[in-house]
Amino acid sequence: MARHARFSELSPEVGELDVDAVREAVADDPDTVLPLLALMSRATDPELRRKVQSLVPRLVIDRARAGPHGKIGSGRLRPVPADRGGDLDLDSSMESVAAAYAAGRSPRLDELVASAWQRPGTALCLLIDRSGSMEGAQLATAAMAAAACALRSNQSGGELSIVAFDRRAEVIVPLTAPTGVDKAVEQVLGLRGHGMTSIDAALRCAREQLAGARAKRRITVLLSDCRVTDDVDPVPSARALDELLVIAPAADADAARGLAAESGARVAELDRLVDLPRILDDLLAP
């Protein structure tokens, strides 16, 4: 890590972190600097580790806000009580207005009708492949995916679960326990990589998580190259999901394309870390 070309630029002295230099470097070259920061968040120097860990989640979240949509699903105008906001619908409110004036009083706001944009509820389950190595670029990509999913879920009034998997699946953000965006990113940045790869175990866990969702639209987002090493065919579990979206590294996407073709999933290939929010928005568009 210390041999990285930009390490001394970010940490000029032992235990020090130049926050201004970090922000400038992330703005200049996020695909190089965010993976380096992910590594630095595990530095053996406790003071440097603490400083990096306090800064990285916010940097990742700021980058994850990018994208043309930012919310899930298309909005519709719906009638709501006027005390909940929206634009007053005079035609729909006339009966209440007339009744109030007949009673010799002004109509209350909750008696009037307004029109407001509402988005359909959506439940997301993000599956993060942590088998093998979970360093640098892989860790930064996972954190970016967690931030992007959490932001878009929150903005759309949806539900979110995050599952990390290798041979087994581990729920790190349960669907039933709402978690802030910062906390979700911190949880992912703390992941360690190891073990075999069971896509089937991950997909079955996603189905279990989404079974308790209130939302009608239930989406599983799989962040993986989809290379199976446990000899269990994941296709039946993939087909059992309402909606499966796969994001695979562009340099190793053959297995992901194969899974998508056999299961009816949609797949996108990720070449640059900063493209992940846009790719996620494209996949989530109805």
TrEMBL record:
InterPro entries: VWF_A, vWFA_dom_sf
CDD domains attached to this UniProt entry: vWFA
UniProt cross-references to SUPFAM superfamilies, sorted A to Z: vWA-like
A matching Pfam family: VWA_2
Residue ranges annotated for the VWFA domain, each copy included: 123-283
The organism's place on the tree of life at top rank: Bacteria
Official protein name in the record: VWA domain-containing protein
Organism: Gordonia asplenii
Lineage: Bacteria, Bacillati, Actinomycetota, Actinomycetes, Mycobacteriales
